[in-house]
Amino acid sequence: METQIVDRRDVKMNQVETFTNELFGQVRALEIEGKPYAVASDIAKALGYKNANDAIIRHCKGIVKHDMVDRNGFTQIMNVIPEGDIYRLIIKSKLSSAEKFEKWVMEDVLPSLRSNGSYSLQGLSKELQAIFTIDKKTVEMDNRLSKLENTMTIDYSQQEELRMTANRTVVELLDGKSSEAYKKLKNRIFQDLWRSYKKHFRVNSYRNTAVKDFEDAVDYIENWSPDEVILFAINGLNRQASFA
């Protein structure tokens, strides 16, 4: 896709606002016929695109070329993009802080360019309004799911899986159910395992393990080991039995 020159006109520097953010650097923006535009390369670089020009060409649909005159009187031809393209670059960005950039643009950059100083969805195209409505609903759904995961506890089948995993771990540690160590130390080992488990996951019973912690819980039990004193006792009992 070749960059289309939609419009071309001189823009004096006093019409261009430079917005600075510690995380994203500087973004130059301006208002053209009542609509906000930003320097395309500033947006692409702030969003972590390694090849800013390529990202602009691939993702932006309304690129406008402008002659921008700097304070020294030199003219530069700059690509500027409307807010629709700004959000396209945000959506396509792989930068982990892209959402923070979106928040900054929505709450600081765009309101400063608008004559009424406030940002609202009514000023956007129907396409962008739909994007933000969907995004808002997605965030709300994610928040609800996160809340459920934090409060829901595991079901019976998951409880049984933890219990059976603990049984396997203890049997392996004691060298089988027929071992002397199993006969004499199994109760102690089970008590130590579950005591350690409850302390680690901050629950009063493994049955109250949070759903979000289930996979970690299985892994914890599989890799659990008693302290060195108990391990020494296990080895000692099993060695005695082998010489008996």
How many domains comprise the coordinates?
A: 2
The overall pLDDT, averaged over residues, is 82
The whole-angstrom Rg is 31 Å
Helical content band: 40-55%
Protein structure class: alpha+beta
Unreliable runs: 1-14, 116-120
Q: What distance separates the N and C termini?
A: 84 Å
Q: What percentage of the residues does DSSP assign to strands (E)?
A: 5-15%
CATH T-level fold name of the largest domain: Mlu1-box Binding Protein, DNA-binding Domain
Protein name: BRO family, N-terminal domain protein
Domain Bro-N: 13-117
Pfam families: Bro-N (PF02498), ORF6C (PF10552)
InterPro entries: BRO_N_domain, ORF6C_dom
Q: What do you see in this structure?
A:
This protein is of the alpha+beta class and 244 residues long. The protein folds into 2 domains: 10-119, Mlu1-box Binding Protein, DNA-binding Domain (Roll), CATH 3.10.260; 156-243, no CATH class. 54% of the residues lie in helices and 14% in strands. The protein has 9 helices and 6 strands. The chain has a 6-stranded mixed β-sheet. Strand 2 (17-21) and strand 3 form a beta hairpin. The longest helix has 26 residues, at 126-151. The termini are far apart. The relative contact order is 0.09. Residues 13-117 form the Bro-N domain. Pfam families: Bro-N (PF02498), ORF6C (PF10552). This is BRO family, N-terminal domain protein.
Show the helix and strand layout.
Layout: E1 10-12, E2 17-21, E3 25-32, E4 35-39, H1 40-46, H2 52-59, E5 64-69, E6 75-82, H3 83-92, H4 98-113, H5 126-151, H6 156-173, H7 180-201, H8 214-222, H9 228-243
Parallel strand pairs: 1-5
Antiparallel strand pairs: 2-3, 3-4, 4-6, 5-6
